[in-house]
Amino acid sequence: MGILVINSGSSSIKYQLFNMDDESVLAKGLVERIGIEGSRLEQEVNGEEIEIEQEIADHSVGMKLVIDTLTDTETGVISDVEEIDAVGHRVVHGGEYFDGSVVVDDDVKEKIEECAKLAPLHNPANLMGIEVCEELIPNAPQVVTFDTAFHQSIPKESYMYALPYEFYEKHRVRRYGFHGTSHKFVAQRVAEEMGQPVEDLKIITCHLGNGASVTAVKNGKAYDTSMGLTPLEGLVMGTRCGDIDPAAVPFIMEKEDLSPQEMDQLMNNKSGLLGVSGVSSDMRDVEDAASDGNKRAQLALDMFTNRVKKYIGSYTAEMNGVDAIVFTAGIGENGSEVREASCSELDYLGVKIDADKNNVRGKTQEISTTDSKVNVYVIPTNEELVIARDTKELIK
């Protein structure tokens, strides 16, 4: 069974084609700079890469290029588009409508469009990808997996904000959480590694990348998460500020004469590691600058790991214990120093990191000592595989 997984952004299309008989990846690629000068497609098959540079005016042209590349007689991996049995899509926001993946119909598309008010940068592009695939691969059912779905199990006392209740009733202002597909995948994987049912465990999953979030997973379900109504809340991130005093927002707006849109851009695009360090939003650049004695870069690093540590502590309290802590995503999978610093001073939990085991990048490995009371793991995330599995299950 061939399943194509699509992540459609505002100017890009990421894709992977799976053979679900053995869950192998037949091809994966990226179409970038759609509608912008210098657009191109990059595809990898069995470690071999090809690159096609051409004008890609819109997502229809980009998606057609993907299909043509996958079916090309020389570089392709399938002979005909009919070998794609279904298409699975990543959609960022499903609001309160969806607690799992669903087959696309008109009602689903209407709800994705309605939720665009909560994710204006993402949902419209995600929906565009669905509609283009419906046009170009008409015989393949379309399935969507939502970043927010896994977090729909969070209890009301954790997802509600202490604002006047009418704002929830009128506008559904609440915590939704994101990266749900990733948190779900690594929680299930760490249970497999530990040889225990995920339903019997209390797990804290740390998805640390340019966007970052922490989730408490209790008995296999999300119990709390750091991102909120939008992905801005929670941890210090590449360019996002994370948690701040809400009163700081009108204060800065007044002092700097900023509009709401300018303030939103400041918090989302000019803050975080970039804003504090003044160096970069990339953790590697910030670490290099800190090693060279840049004090602001060191401060940014300390703030990043301190915030992770605070969430680990608070979620341990919420769940009345923790069995495993998991690090995933770009920083979590590759940043040994970040992992070590995030777990430092968790002695009261009995967390002990093995320095030799922690010297690992991008592969599944337990990094805690044999006498650590909490298992600590690095587990590479695989959101695309989760989407492919859900798609396969739904079209059966």
Automatic annotation (TrEMBL):
Binding site for ATP: K14, H207, L208, G209, N210, G211, D282, M283, R284, G330, I331, G332, E333, N334
Class of this enzyme: transferase
Textual note on the cofactor: Mg(2+). Can also accept Mn(2+).
Cofactors, names only: Mg(2+); Mn(2+)
Active site, per annotation: D147
Gene Ontology biological process terms in this record: acetate metabolic process; acetyl-CoA biosynthetic process
Site label Transition state stabilizer, positions: H179, R240
PROSITE patterns: ACETATE_KINASE_1 (PS01075), ACETATE_KINASE_2 (PS01076)
Keyword NADP attached: no
EC number: 2.7.2.1
Reaction catalyzed: acetate + ATP = acetyl phosphate + ADP
Protein name per the record: Acetate kinase
Organism: Halobacteroides halobius (strain ATCC 35273 / DSM 5150 / MD-1)
